[in-house]
Write a structure and sequence with these properties.
CATH class of the largest domain: Alpha Beta
Distance between the termini: 48 Å
Structural class: alpha/beta
Number of domains: 2
Helix content: 25-40%
CATH topology of the largest domain: D-Maltodextrin-Binding Protein, domain 2
Largest sheet: 10 strands, mixed
Oligomer: single chain
Order of helices and strands: HEHEHEHHEEHEHEHEHEEHHH
Radius of gyration: 20 Å
CATH superfamily of the largest domain: Periplasmic binding protein-like II
Low-confidence stretches: 3-17
């Protein structure tokens, strides 16, 4: 209890002192080390910054825009999009702004090498068992949208789909399923385990129909899993997904947002070292897949650098 009180006191001190508090996610995920990396850069550039572990995107959006307990935060672009565009809650989130996109979380389709699956449409084969993600997960909802928009399945349910969490890689390793969909940043420990212990192959998700879907939903963007990311990945794989957005309240001064944005662009190579998931991002990709309008301070810096 004393530790909790002390931590809350420290957080209050940072906020009262006008310092930057970045909301992230679990310490075991990608958001937290990314926030730590951002703070490292800002601390070197005359800002006092602390990364705060949180429950994730929804919490971060709420406490950046409404309660202002956070001065900055990282959130998934689809969550940002739905918060900003939700008509019922528009008055609560109209001040939600983005500074940049950071790294992609891609929908990934991995199948056993012995399976005859070579393209997305093959998952409709009645003899195939595919994990479409745990009920209530981001993977599950994304696969259902993919099934509706690209495969033409009205209810979004792939007939051969199984609602299991691929965190339990045992199913795959024991050959009880032929493959799985997984929405994640790369590299991912579960996929690395599968690649190390079995012969797997990745399926590209970048057809023309998928391109139309990505264009239709602005929170989506294309991305690439570069060969060598995993032991079993011998070629680049192209897919789509959401982006981790760096968000802020519109009330933050243009001057401060400019300084933050400039510091991150000037130290871009350092930012990429925050986590392996950032290894292949580019300065150009920082403006793609934003779920809400960009803060005017960030716009100014990106325009000055010829990136907008």
């Amino acid at each position: 209890m004393r530790k909790i009180v002390l931590l809350l006191g420290m957080l209050s001190f940072f906020l009262e002192a006008g310092n930057l508090v970045i909301g992230s996610g679990s310490t075991k995920g990608v958001y937290y080390p990314t926030a730590v990396g951002i703070c490292g850069i800002l601390n070197q550039n005359s800002h006092k910054c602390v990364a705060k572990s949180t429950s994730g995107s929804i919490y971060n959006i709420l406490h950046t825009v409404r309660t202002k307990k956070l001065t900055l935060a990282i959130a998934q672009s689809d969550s940002v999009y739905f918060a900003y565009h939700n008509k019922k809650k528009a008055k609560h989130y109209k001040k939600l702004r983005t500074i940049m996109s950071i790294y992609p979380e891609l929908l990934t389709l991995i199948v056993t090498k012995k399976s005859k699956l070579g393209k997305l449409a093959d998952v409709l084969n009645e003899n195939v068992k595919i994990s479409t993600g745990k009920i209530g997960s981001g993977t599950k909802s994304s696969v259902e949208l993919l099934a509706k928009e690209v495969l033409g399945i009205k209810n979004g349910r792939i007939p051969t789909g199984l609602s299991v969490a691929i965190k339990d890689v045992r199913l795959y390793l024991e050959s009880k399923i032929d493959g799985f969909f997984y929405f994640t940043g790369h590299p991912n420990k579960n996929i690395a385990k599968i690649c190390a212990g079995s012969k797997a192959k990745f399926i590209n998700l970048n057809s023309k129909k998928i391109g139309k879907m990505v264009k239709k939903y602005p929170y989506y963007t294309f991305g690439k899993i570069t060969k060598g990311t995993y032991k079993c990945l011998k070629r680049d794989i192209f897919s789509y997904g959401v982006k981790a957005n760096l968000i802020v309240n519109a009330d933050m001064s243009e001057y401060l947002v400019k300084k933050i944005t400039k510091a991150l662009l000037d130290n871009f190579e350092e930012l990429k070292k925050s986590h392996p998931a950032l290894k292949y991002i580019t300065k150009e990709s920082l403006t793609e897949g934003l779920g809400a309008p960009m803060h005017k301070g960030a716009i100014a810096v990106f325009e000055e650098n010829g990136l907008l």
